[in-house]
Amino acid sequence: MQNSGKQSEKKATEQEIKDKEKRLALLTKYILDFMFFAGIIVTATLPVSLKLIGKYLYPKVSSHYEEAVIIYFVLGVSACILLRELRKIFGTVLEENCFVRENVASLKKMGKWSFFIALVSLVRCIAYMTVTMAVIVLVFIIAGLFSRVLSYVFEQAVSYKEENDLTV
Asked: What is the reported pLDDT for 168?
């Protein structure tokens, strides 16, 4: 009798953990969705917002207005593309089918876009250097490397999964 009570208690605890994980996954999905759509809005409104920032907050932006619009537009579009790939991957996580070739391709794209963002940020440093941009360059280089390594791990996992599926 006691053993059956412990098993049902263990199952209830496992279900609670799964429910928490599902809620956390949904919260993460909503955050990614917000970042993606907010990124599109911010990127689309750059010409106006940079004029206001240059006028009221940071006058140095006004002296490099055209360069800032172009560079931040390229960075914004790149970040949105990177987020789109991350959202695709996260969709497969929610479907509980994350070891698929599409995720390998998405991770490789994310690595390339991360390196591209780092490169554009370096170009931006030519216009005016800040510590923040140096940090951003490092973060995106690390993100690019991480994405590339993770793509290799996923590629191996997909191969093992496909091999295992053929055996069964």
From this structure: 56
Q: Please report the DSSP string for 19-36 in residue order.
A: HHHHHHHHHHHHHHHHHH
Q: What angle do CA 97, 33, 41 make, to 5 degrees?
A: 150
Residue tagged 């537009």 (tokens): 73
pTM to 2 decimal places:
0.84
Alpha helices in 97-130 (DSSP H): 101-127
DSSP label at residue 56: I
How far is 140 from 119, CA to CA, in rounded Å?
Answer: 9
Domain count, the chain: 1
Cα gap 121→166, rounded to integer Å: 46
Percent of the chain with pLDDT over 90: 61
